[in-house]
Amino acid sequence: MPLIHTSAMMTTLIVLAGLISIIITNTETFAQNQTSLNQSGAGVIDLTVQGVSAFAPEGRDIYTITGEVFNNNTFPFNAVQVSTTLYDNNSQVVGVGSGYTSPSGIQPGLKAPFKIDIFGGEIRGGIDAINNYTLQVAGDLQVQVFQ
User: Fold this and answer.
1) Residue 67 pairs with which residues in a beta bridge?
2) Does a structural domain hold residue 146?
3) What is the CATH number of the domain that holds 77?
4) Is 85 inside any structural domain?
5) 78, part of any domain
6) Which domain holds residue 75?
7) Number of separate domains in the chain
8) Residue 130 contacts residue 90 (beta carbons within 8 Å)
9) By the 8 A CB rule, do 125 and 75 touch?
10) Residue 125 region, left (φ>0) first, then alpha (ψ -120 to 50), else beta?
């Protein structure tokens, strides 16, 4: 009997690990010249990026991307992080960056803003080399399990 109980418990743990480690991906891209390149992962997208803008503040050697992440799930997400990859005119990667939403946890049906700052010295060819970028959002799905 203990063997069956252990086997069932292991199955439960494997399923729970899968639920907790789910990374929801939604990538949206916007070029500096406002060309839209849209990519999305398979399946239901529970975290979506909205209201994105990208700019280089005048007189500063920083490229800034801002927006909001909306939680379309029935469970909260913690540690919600937005990552970006910057590309030049030849679709070559020239830089990367990331930032967390504020607050970093998002309750169901709510949204939280994010801001990513990438310093010009971290961008191959500088800020002027950026032609477009992709965004990816990930978070830890918080599911409560009652036994």
Assistant:
1) 114
2) no
3) 2.60.40.10
4) yes
5) yes
6) 23-141
7) 1
8) no
9) no
10) left
